[in-house]
Amino acid sequence: MLDHPEEYYSHYYHYYSRRLAPKVDVRVVILVSVCAISMFQYFSWWNSYNKAISYLATVPKYRIQATEIAKEQGLLKKA
Fold it and tell me: Which domain holds residue 26?
């Protein structure tokens, strides 16, 4: 090692790269990442959907249209 001091850190790298390498399958990491991203997308979609429905329920124009459509489809009793 003293003959080639520039290779000092490469010896450490080669020793610890195998000893400290993660023992997790790459497929598991990819699967968990895809599931986490999908859950985030679903909950953000659900939140924006609920916000849109809440907003549309407060505006009289859209609320009246929605009640008329619901009456036509038989979801509400015709009054």
Answer: 5-72
